[in-house]
């Protein structure tokens, strides 16, 4: 199958590599506004052809949009303008309500399948892309009844070939859940990095001492603003809701420490330990 | 060398296994108040002999105390009471000022080397112990001038055999740095787990959706209160200081979102990205 990947970074590149490895894609058009990324993607064998958006879309059965969520909102209507009833468009965005809203009344809305694979790393660009990606993680398809049956079937095939198991929910529910499960983690990680950078002026000491625990908690703070500012912007209300709760949970720890209430501290920790049973 | 390990859990057990593998230890006495842990440690080949504290200390050249930091404060003076000038005692605690203070005027103070290997996992007990531990991480020796030269030399040998590189600092500095680099990570992780457990009542959804990012940020929330309440207690002032800063950093994200000040949001994230250069 010929596919177009719009945005040939970590996610778009990893999808291309994996679909190629599984012999699901046999020709990949790469579209990006970053010339360097396009050249890298070509020389790394991620794409077969550097292409204009129009040419890529016109000649592909499947079009995957893997760019920041604000840009997806802009580009998606133009892509749908170009497709016919035998082509399918998927995105990979971390927020869904705004994207779905942007094409709500588009005559080709049913060629679009809102898709979110719950995988990523703190790296970006085609050089970070890998065929060893996605495996065992979940992917969400939103508002499935608004997509044509054959488009949905193709999206399921894509998920299968990426070794993702599928969940179905509304775009609104998706954005609530991802605020809890993904977006807040990034904010706490960024804020933790800023805390340590603010308080710990001796950067050499951070580097020397950083335990595996710290590295793990702060890993997401390496993620780039180009991707995350638009996510926070589009999911503002849900994220603020979770962030308020998080600050209030931190205040409980603060209060327990200040009051030397170590029984409360133990309760708070024991409650948090329940995550062990949920995350295995 | 005959060694005594007091507290045969994740850390004590991993030290025993690794020192044994490196042929540094050829006989290991295991001391623990948890009978099950002792039996597990024996049958897993971590220790050679289940022993009383007194017998283990009397018959070992090196005594390693690997129990929670409050218990270390209690036990350390009794251990020093039992040793002569050819024996060395090390602890592995995540806080140091309180432990050092507890034996400040002990006549055998110079047989003790305050030691902190910056490695651990969210698991506990001898079944989690592994010889594949510590490698490449840092260890801190505190207040080195208060230890006898030969005791210090032996501690260096231990660090070398555990593949740890050594840093030297005062107990006070150690406790400030670990508040930044380790203790606050645990609090944010616990608070994040509690946030998600509070807001996300659908536990099945957490399980299904949890991205690798979330799992990584919340990993430390699996750590047990038996170990961490005493650490928070003994390092209360430093942790409160960092926790206040962390809450104020989170409030900046909150305010940027509330005011839709996306330039500030980008600045906050770009600043956090600096951690990439420091942690490689």
What this model shows, in words?
Chains A, B: One of its GO terms (molecular function) is prephenate dehydrogenase (NAD+) activity. Chains A, B: This is Prephenate dehydrogenase. Chains A, B: Keywords: Oxidoreductase. Chains A, B: InterPro entries: 6-PGluconate_DH-like_C_sf, NAD(P)-bd_dom_sf, PDH_C, PDH_N, Preph/Arog_dehydrog, Prephen_DH. Two copies of one chain form a homodimer. Chain A is of the alpha/beta class. The first copy, chain A, has two domains: 2-170, NAD(P)-binding Rossmann-like Domain (Rossmann fold); 174-278, 6-phosphogluconate dehydrogenase C-terminal fold (Orthogonal Bundle). The first copy, chain A, is built from 13 helices and nine strands. The first copy, chain A, has a six-stranded parallel sheet with strand order 3-2-1-4-5-6, sandwiched between helices. Chain A has a three-stranded mixed sheet with strand order 7-8-9. In chain A, helix 7 packs across helix 11 (236-258). The longest helix of chain A has 29 residues, at 171-199. The first copy, chain A, starts with a strand and ends with a helix. The model of chain A has no long low-confidence stretch (mean pLDDT 94). Chains A and B meet through helix 7, helix 8, helix 9, helix 10 and helix 11 of A and helix 7, helix 8, helix 9, helix 10 and helix 11 of B.
Please provide the count of β strands of chain A.
9
* CATH class categorisation of the largest domain in chain A: Alpha Beta
Q: What is the percent of helical residues of chain A?
A: 40-55%
Largest sheet of chain A: 6 strands, parallel
Helix segment tally of chain A: 13
CATH superfamily of the largest domain in chain A: NAD(P)-binding Rossmann-like Domain
Task: Report how far the terminal alpha carbons of chain A are from each other.
Answer: 38 Å
Secondary-structure element order of chain A, N to C? EHEHEHEHEHEEEHEHHHHHHH
Largest interface, C-beta closer than 8 angstroms, per-chain residues: A-B, 91 and 91 residues
GO biological process, one term (chains A, B): tyrosine biosynthetic process
GO molecular function, one term (chains A, B): NAD+ binding
Keywords (chains A, B): Oxidoreductase
Domain Prephenate/arogenate dehydrogenase (chains A, B): 1-280
